[in-house]
């Protein structure tokens, strides 16, 4: 496969501007020219949180909107060119699909703020800014002696953990499109969830949508652990469905303050963090690249808008570094028929050498870093190549994680040794079959592989597809106050594709089985 630029002589239908399928009008929606702090200031119900924004100078951060240094995008690379039936739009072929390339026409900074009202704060004995400051010192005593404007001060930490560096309308916190959710398995045992970094340095927030029955969510919660069926270890904090938004973000009400304390870090977040590749940069979210659905009615049936992929300029995509030159990665749309978790991915096309900054770990300890692979071993349309993975050490040097990985291999290849769960015959008992499955899982793990999750699949679970699996990149001791990076470098074939769907960061307590075998979800 190669990237090609296709000049279309066809006239493209003029369609309305793309609007995310999940972002529906809300009675409280405020579309005006004010920034988020001003929106907050106008609401007397949240005066304490607003005063804290001013005291910490986080107000200045939340007044950012447009990056003035962002380069002008040539017309042929814009979404508008697709709408305007321009003959020189660009495309590339991948497997059986042809995708159409656009760059964001500007770089926007946006924010999601979880706000606690004055009346709720009063139930904690907090009636003014001084009370909130004292409360923050009790949660983050290490910052008690610092000025509010210091990013390490108690008040600054408390407030920062309530802010995400991107704007998420309610239905975009987690995957929610019906055509995707219908492919979810075990909804009552494993919540739909995402892990996001917050404005508090080296912090992570777990946002979950639990389902009691298929397609009927119970709400969206912050830092929830467990399910009603399996048992709740932490109920989480409910996000109100109502929100107020402006040109650079918006805010939601929550029922209690959010704390990044030892209980959150060492218990609630002591879990397998499955981080979707399309959430690794705030720019993926703020640009609208993440979460679009192929066949969204808002696209008006236009195939070019349905299959539009976003690319980004080097230096204008936070958390990601790559060499300038040929375009080599794209944020794709979701498709209910894709053999990837939740049907979306980053397509990274060789030759490539690309670096991702990983979300922080919640506590010091030993972790496995795993990455998704869909080998498509049966296909000659979309060849997977050989990738050498690196992590960065304390000295800032990138160290190879073993030998290059042949991403074209099926899990059933003798070099890996995977066996399908249903390949143990019908003349054995169920307990014998489960013992054999468990033994093969242990063998795979020892060799650096895991089968795909069983919690998603277009017909049968992805776990049944021997072309889909997780590759263990490294096992390493990680610290909660450090930055970690993953480097992917294509070696060998120049025209291979790596379909980057998700990464997992897994604590020792989970993958070692000290609390029981890791679930298959």
Shape: globular
Cα Rg: 23 Å
Helix run count: 13
Multimerization state: single chain
What's the CATH first level of the largest domain? Mainly Beta
If classified by CATH, what would the architecture of the largest domain be?
A: Sandwich
Percentage beta strand: 25-35%
CATH superfamily of the largest domain: Galactose-binding domain-like
Overall average pLDDT: 89
Largest sheet: 7 strands, mixed
Structural domain tally: 2
Please provide the count of β strands: 28
Helical percent range?
A: 10-25%
| Poorly predicted spans | 1-30
Task: Give the N-to-C terminal Cα separation.
Answer: 33 Å
Strand order of the largest sheet: 4-3-13-12-9-6-5
User: Which secondary-structure class do the elements indicate?
Assistant: alpha+beta
Q: What do we call the CATH topology of the largest domain?
A: Jelly Rolls
Describe, in plain words, how this protein is organized in 3D.
By secondary structure, the chain is of the alpha+beta class. It folds into 2 domains: 36-64 and 109-268, FAS1 domain (Roll); 273-511, Sandwich (Jelly Rolls), CATH 2.60.120. The chain is built from 13 helices and 28 strands. The chain has a 7-stranded mixed β-sheet. The longest helix is centred in the C-terminal third of the chain and has 17 residues, at 430-446. The chain is globular, with a radius of gyration of 23 Å. The two termini are 33 Å apart. Mean pLDDT is 89; it is low at 1-30.
């Amino acid at each position: 496969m190669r990237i090609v630029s296709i000049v279309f002589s066809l006239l493209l239908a003029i369609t309305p501007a793309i609007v995310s399928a999940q972002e529906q009008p809300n009675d409280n929606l405020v579309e005006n020219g004010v920034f988020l702090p001003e929106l907050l200031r106008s609401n007397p119900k949240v005066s304490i949180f607003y005063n804290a924004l001013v005291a910490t100078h986080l107000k200045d951060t939340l007044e950012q909107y447009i990056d003035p240094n962002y380069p002008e995008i040539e017309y042929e690379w814009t979404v508008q060119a697709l709408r305007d039936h321009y003959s020189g739009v660009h495309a590339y072929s991948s497997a059986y699909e042809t995708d159409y390339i656009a760059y964001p026409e500007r770089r926007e900074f946006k924010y999601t703020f979880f706000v606690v009202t004055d009346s709720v704060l009063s139930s904690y004995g907090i009636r003014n800014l001084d009370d909130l400051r004292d409360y923050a010192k009790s949660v983050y005593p290490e910052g008690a002696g610092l000025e509010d404007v210091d990013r390490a001060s108690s008040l600054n930490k408390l407030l920062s953990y309530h802010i995400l560096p991107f704007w998420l309308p309610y239905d975009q916190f987690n995957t929610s499109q019906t055509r995707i959710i219908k492919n979810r398995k075990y909804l009552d045992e494993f919540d739909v969830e995402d892990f996001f970094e917050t404005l508090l340095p080296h912090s992570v927030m777990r946002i979950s949508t639990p389902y009691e029955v298929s397609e009927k969510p119970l709400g969206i919660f912050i830092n929830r652990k467990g399910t009603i069926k399996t048992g709740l270890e932490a109920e989480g904090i409910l996000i109100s469905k109502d929100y107020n938004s402006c040109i650079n973000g918006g805010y939601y009400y929550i029922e209690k303050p959010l704390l990044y304390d030892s209980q959150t870090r060492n218990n609630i977040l002591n879990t397998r963090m499955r981080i979707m590749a399309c959430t690794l940069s705030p720019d993926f979210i703020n640009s609208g690249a993440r979460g679009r659905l192929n066949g969204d009615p808002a696209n008006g049936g236009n195939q070019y808008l349905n299959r539009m992929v976003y690319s980004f300029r080097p230096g204008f995509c936070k958390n990601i570094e790559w060499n300038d030159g040929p375009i080599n990665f794209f944020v794709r749309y979701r498709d209910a028929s894709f053999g990837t978790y939740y049907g979306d991915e980053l397509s990274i096309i060789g030759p490539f050498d690309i670096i991702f900054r990983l979300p922080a770990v919640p506590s010091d300890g030993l972790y496995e870093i795993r990455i998704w692979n869909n080998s498509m071993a049966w296909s000659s349309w979309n060849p997977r190549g050989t990738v050498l993975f690196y992590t960065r050490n304390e000295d800032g040097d990138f160290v190879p994680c073993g030998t290059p990985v042949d991403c074209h291999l099926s899990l059933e290849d003798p070099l890996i040794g995977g066996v399908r769960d249903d390949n143990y015959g019908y003349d054995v008992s169920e307990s014998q079959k489960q013992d054999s499955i468990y033994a093969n899982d242990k063998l795979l793990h020892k060799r650096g592989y895991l089968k795909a999750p069983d919690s998603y699949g277009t017909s049968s679970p992805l776990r049944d597809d021997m072309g889909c699996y997780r590759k263990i990149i490294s096992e390493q001791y990680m610290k909660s106050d450090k930055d970690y990076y993953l480097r992917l470098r294509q070696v060998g074939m120049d025209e291979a594709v790596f379909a980057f769907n998700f990464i997992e960061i897994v604590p020792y307590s989970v993958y070692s089985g000290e609390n029981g075998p890791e679930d298959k979800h």
